[in-house]
Amino acid sequence: MNEYDVVVVGGGAAGLSAALVLTRARRRVAVLDAGRPRNAPAAHMHGFLGSDGLAPAELLAAGRAEVAGYGGRLVSGTVATITACPRTSAQSRRGFEVLLTDGTRLTTRRVLVTTGLRDDIPDIPGVRERWGRDLLHCPYCHGYEVRDQPLGVLGGDPAFIEDALSHAHIIRQWSDDVVFFANGGSLTVAQREQLVARAIGFVDTPVARLVVEDDRLSGVELEGGQVVPRTAVFVRPRFVPNDTLLTGLGCETGQNGWVAVDTTGRTSVPGVWAAGNAVNPRAQVITAAGEGSGAAIAINNDLVDEDLPIAVTNFRLGLPVG
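Predicted structure:
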């Protein structure tokens, strides 16, 4: 059975939360997931009420079990394309065909895309290896765990030096020993004064690599060999949405280049919703879960709205109600 009311593409917090709501609404739901969650490197998840400190994998495992318990289908695989099926009449239902890379085809009345984003981080030796461990990006997710430690904030693209500096001032809330590594970027007199005023150290010399000892970050090595001892370093990556399925369907984008959605996650393409980091770069796990839940309610209401005039017409014609 490959016919569904809703196909959810992406089995993270947003997708599973939506699937849970929809399966409890007695909808036929399939969740398609490639098994590459963005937060896989993180040992713990924070800021999620009732689940603070839980491993991300444990949250997803519990979510999958809950969705399956209500009859949802969980499919491992990668979606290649989503195609809108033409409506044959005003009385016909809207539909989509979802094609997986292994050739599997599913048909569905509605689509929810929760494919997340990918982090574009500085190409510095050690950064990718320590990503999600002691090379961090979100102070609200990990700041408390490294509080009062010697922290660093790594500048990346000089074009985004202002964003990196803002990050440093936020990180300062968790430690009084913070060093900003401009990584070759130029700081104005005003920016330097702000750092001094907040007792944030700063280094102009480009960064050569992160120093790791006994599988722990121990410092930041500069060009020339000097090492600045640090136990954790933060970086603000450039967020890149995994939105090719959405743009392939013709979903409109906003001025920021991201696919535009309304407050329920509805895109410009009828029948297509999106939630979580695929359309909201700031969504933490708890935010993504909430967006998925909201989208699910909107999708179910939309299905009811579509069914109602069809049911009335069938009733008048003496056809079976359904």
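Summary: The chain has a mean pLDDT of 93.
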